[in-house]
Amino acid sequence: MQQPGYPALFALSFLASTLVPLGSEWLLVLMLVKGYDPATSVLTATAGNTLGACTTWLIGRYGGDWLLARLFRISDQQRQRAESWYQRYGSFSLLLSWLPVVGDPLCLVGGLLKIRFPIFLLLAGVGKLARYVAVAWLTLRVAAGAV
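Below the sequence we write its predicted structure tokens.
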């Protein structure tokens, strides 16, 4: 990734929202500092991360316990924590699907609890968009010396 670009950002953002424990914000920051278009960068990262979350939702919806425990390595404690978020906040907890540690389990449990896909897509997408907008805004302010 010597020459990062939009495909790399999309792929990293996708992977960061699925099985692979990665972060994608660093690449977004690097690209913005190097002069990539902010809107295109934010939308690319959001699309990749949201599609990754959809993959996680599908595994929760249609995958068995083996997939959840072995492939995703979601512990019973993480699953129970995510389920308690749903009990407390309902589907709106998906707005927090971008958070580390609890975000992937929230998407997974959204599938397990059969949250309707359009609602899932809207709430998870909005949460992820808000995160990338915040990262881009802060990056551009720091780069301009405004902070």
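The CA atoms of residues 10 and 47 lie 7 Å apart.
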